Every structure is written in C-alpha cells, then in structure tokens.
Amino acid sequence: MAKEVEMLVGVSGIYVFYLLYGIVQERVTTTPFGPNGERFDFMFFLVCLQCILNALFAFIVLGFNRLWTKQAPKDKVPFTEYAWISLTYVLAMLCSNSSLQFVDYPTQVLGKSCKPIPVMLMGALVYGRSYNWRKWLCVLLITAGIALFMFKNKGGAVADDVTPWGVMWGYALLLASLAFDGLTGPAQERLYEKYNPKPTFVHVMFYSNVWAVLYMGAGVLVTGETVPATLFTIRHPEIVWYIFLFGVCSGLGQFFIYYTLQHFGSLVLTVATTTRKFFTILASVLWFGHALSLTKWFAVGLVFAGLSIEILGKYVDDYLARAPASAKPKPKPSADSSKKAKTVKKAKKAQ
Hints:
The chain has 351 residues and is mostly helical. Helix content is 77%, strand content 0%. The chain has one domain. Helix 3 runs antiparallel to helix 7 and helix 3 crosses helix 8.
C-alpha cells in the first residue's frame, strides 16, 4: 500500500493547498480593503513575493534532503537552461493573477481549465498534427461550456467600474496565460529528455523560481510598484497575513504538483488538478457568494465532462499500453491468413 499512500499524499496536498490558494488569491486580488474600497493591484510585486516564497520553500526542502541523506543531490543541468521554463511559467502566473482585476474568480478558474483548446489548435495549425475523435469531442464540449458560461455574463467583472473593454482584456489575459502554460510543459519535458541523470523535481522548482524572482524583480523596478505596494500594506496591514498565506499555499501546492508529476506521471496529475479546479469554483461560490445560475452550472459541467472524457481516454490508452499481451484483444485473422491456415492443414493431412 506504500505507493497508494504516496499518491494519496500527493493528490491530497494539491487539493488542500490549492483550494486554500484560490480562496486567498481571490481575497488579495479582488476584495476591497478599507473604507475607501482600495484594491491591491500590484501584480508584479505580488508575483515576485510569491516566487521568493516558492524558491525559499524548495531551498529548505533541498537542505533537509542534504541533512537526511548526508549528501547533496546532484543537478548537472546548467542554470541558464531554466531561464525559458521560468519565463513562460512566470508570464502565465502574471497574466492569470492580472485577469482577476477584470473577471471574477470562477470565470478565471474555468478559463484556466481549457488548456486542451490552444494546445490542439497550435498543434493542428502550426505542426500539422491530427487528433482522434475523442480529443475533438473534448474540445467541442469545453468550447460549448465556455461560450454558454460567458453568454450574457454580467461582465464576469469583480467591480462595477470595470467596463466591457476591461472584461475583454481580462479574457485576453486568460488566453495569454493558457498560451504560456502550453509552452511550459514541453520545455520541462525537453529538459528531462536532454539530461541524464534527470534533475529532481525540487531542483526544477527551485531554479525555475530563482529565475522568476530575477524576472519579477526587474519588473517591479521598471513599474515602480515597490513603494505604492508597501504603502498599501502600511494602510491595510491585514493584507500582509493574506499575502504570506498566499505564498505559503503556492509553495506547498507547487511542491506537491512537481512531486506527483515525477512519481506518478501526467495522468494522475491531470485528474487531480482538473477535479481540484471544479471544487475551487465551488469553494469560491460558497465562500465569496458568487451567484451562478443553473445555466452556468450546466456550462461548468460541460467543461468538466469534456476534460473527463479526455482523462478517461488517456487512462484506457495507458492501461492498454501497459497490459500484458495475453490481456490485449487478439486481432481477428484476415482472409489471407485463414486461407494459408487451411492450406497448411490440407498439406498435413495429405502427408
């Protein structure tokens, strides 16, 4: 049962810390503070702090691992190799957090659930790949669900002063976040394929976040967010606790994602993260009082039905690929092979 317990720990970590992450993220980025209703909109500053805490957590894990094993785990990957992975990862996170200034949290989570759409479109249009009926059905259901969810949506906005153009900008940020997410995965796979021994998931987490701190630190300097963000925390000190909790949940959740991916593969991780997003929407609705009509819940169901079809299909494909030859369905003999078998039998009888 050791393997099952390890998987339960990994999946439970993703559920717990990312559900908390979602609630705290919405509290920090969308909830007004103080009598004047100020909102924290310093996204470069927020993401920079998030990446610092992520890197610090990974560094602590590496340190504990060194003490436990009495030796430092070796990572032969050059530091510069993590630059592209980190850039796509941090841009996806920045766009995702920034979109919450223009759309509500359930819309953001539902939009982030739609990675198969840009991946398939880019694969078909740019790389000329073909996809089976299951993948197209998945995309059709997801697209229908998103369209129904957004139809006559009252902006999906987090504030009354957000204009329709602002809402469109929020959707554009979600699409950009999906595009950068789609670039991060192949970059990580290339890293694992290129180097032997492969880097540990903690090393990838640490160095990716170190690069992210460098990127976001430069962004904070360019945008000048340090002073106004600091003054905001002085005016509203209660936000400090939420920002700290936001970073801690991000670091722990990211650790369990990397852990699950390395030990149990992308299928288990996809199931965990997909179902987690559904419960994140539910938690947001219950915690912050977002009103979703039956039509919108039906739209959410369409999206997750499409994702479930793809996940179950991958599970069946993976099972058949690992099944012993005796368990696989035997192909029916062709007409030519049947004739050959009859000819051999006649020859044996003649002898």
